[in-house]
Amino acid sequence: MRSHVPHIVGRDLHLRELAGALTDACAQRGRGVFLVGEAGIGKTRLAAEAVGMAVDHGMRVLRGRSTTTGPAVPFRPLTEALMSLFRGGEPLDDLPLGPYRPVLGRLIPDWGGDVPAGSSMIVLGEAVLRLLIATGRDRGTLLLLEDLHDADPETLAVVEYLVDNLDQAPVLLVATIRTEPCDALDLAESARWRRVGTTLDLAPLTRAEVAALAASQLGTDPAGVPAPALDRLWEDSAGSPLLAEERLQSMITSGSLVNGDDGWKVVGDLRGDVSTSMAKGLLQRIDRLGPRGRDLFSAAAVIGRRFPLTVLQHVTGADDRELLSHLHAGVASRLVVPDEPPPDWYAFRHPLTVEALFTQLTPGRRAELAGRAATAVQALHPELEGDWCQLAAGLRSEEGDVTEAGRLFAEAGRRALAAGAISSAVALLSRAERLLADSGDAVRRAEVLETLLPALAET
Ligand SMILES: Nc1ncnc2c1ncn2[C@@H]1O[C@H](COP(=O)(O)OP(=O)(O)O)[C@@H](O)[C@H]1O
Ligand SMILES: [Mg+2]
Questions:
Q1: What confidence tens digit (pLDDT) does each residue in 252-273 have?
Q2: Residue 218 has pLDDT above 80, yes or no
């Protein structure tokens, strides 16, 4: 399988915006465009398209990247980008840079010599701008700075100066930034306010786009992606192209998705095998929340992908302050998000986080937590109105209390039927029937069948 797809999926609006910005840059109307989104959402992929378009326009492309590995080197991304000017082998010695040339020695070692001491970031910004204008005059330049969230403050100072002053330059600056509180994001935001820069937010892919991504990776068309595999990809990725790719890869390597004579088909069980690299990454983020935070989120995971704080508090015995501080940490590290209805409900952003947390729990501990959560739901909502009944039922089933789970699913099923939701009623009652068969409670099972059979007939 290819590690990257031949076609970019979706992003039509963003591509149009970038194409326009490149054309403008060629006409001496440069600006800054910030591609913003969470890790794996496709910022680099989109930037690669911009590079492709720039090359098609005959523009010069300069690229630099910030990294977190190793000590923070000032100006790293800018130095990297400007160094590629030299690799082109063009004569740069007679560029009209005047007094700004020695200043650039801070970024370009070859121009070292006597770097004027104490020259300001503004002077340096101006020097870089003049270099970009001088080298891009007849064909335009795309300056791509990747992962600006990791950039050193010096780089950001220069970038800020550039963005403010590109409006008559043949230069488009494109920077990718992860959505997390950081100076780079503030910079993008303030550039937007001052109307010198544009921010393009990358949203998760739609289901149809996930299908297109999978199809393109499998070398088929979207109709050739088996429906159960697509369901799984969609659910597990929540529209993240990175997660969708990872998941697809793990289906193939685990042998549950195979390519036969008549196309791709699902042969095994698609559930449960969180790709290990993914799980590791998630677990690292969870680990940073500390042991208590991990306990808290494990209990939340047992409640479900969505969980109510009131129930979680009952289960863990955490006080308000502790609960909220861990929750804020979880939101900040983008593991959980507020959900409907506020303010009680939160949700894990990715189902894979839930699975990763489960790998940290023994089955016994998981059953115990589920039992405690069910007790909390029943204590907090004795009538089990709305969705509470089904939540309690699911938790009792996790706990292994099949009789109580069967009783609760039967109740939820009857209520669904009364509300006219026949398909849900059938699903809930069928589940109740199976559980009660397991528990050997023949009387209750007969009662459930009495309701289930006419409902089935109706569907
Ligand atoms: N729109 C898209 N169409 C097809 N593949 C995509 C798309 N967006 C991202 N991908 C793929 O998903 C993976 C992660 O994307 P990447 O651009 O590296 O994310 P980011 O830079 O935001 O962390 C890559 O393998 C990339 O090729
Ligand atoms: Mg990237």
A1: 877 889 998 889 999 877 765 5
A2: yes
Q: Examine domains 12-201 and 275-361 and report if their fold is the same.
A: no
Residues with Cβ–ion distance below 5 A, ligand 2: 43-44
Domain borders along the chain are: 12-201, 207-273, 275-361, 382-459
Residue 118: predicted pLDDT? 61
pTM for the model stands at 0.68
Residues in a beta bridge with 32: 173, 197
The answer to whether the beta carbons of residues 373 and 309 sit under 8 Å apart is no
CATH topology of domain 12-201: Rossmann fold (3.40.50)
Q: Report how many helices (DSSP H) and strands (DSSP E) the chain contains, helices first.
A: 20, 10
Atom 5, ligand 1: which residue's CA is nearest? 8
Q: Determine the pLDDT at residue 181.
A: 83
Ligand 1 proximal residues by C-beta, below 6 Å: 4-5, 8-11, 37, 39-45, 213, 241-242, 245
Distance (Å) from CA 65 to ligand 2 centroid: 10
Q: From CA 2, how far away is CA 214, in angstroms rounded?
A: 11
Query: Which of 268-272, 283-287, 321-325 shows the lowest per-residue confidence on average (mean pLDDT)?
Result: 268-272
The alpha carbon of 257 and the centre of ligand 1 are apart by a number of angstroms equal to 22
**Nearest to 250, CA basis, from 222, 230, 278, 212:** 278
**Domain at 275-361, CATH class:** mainly alpha
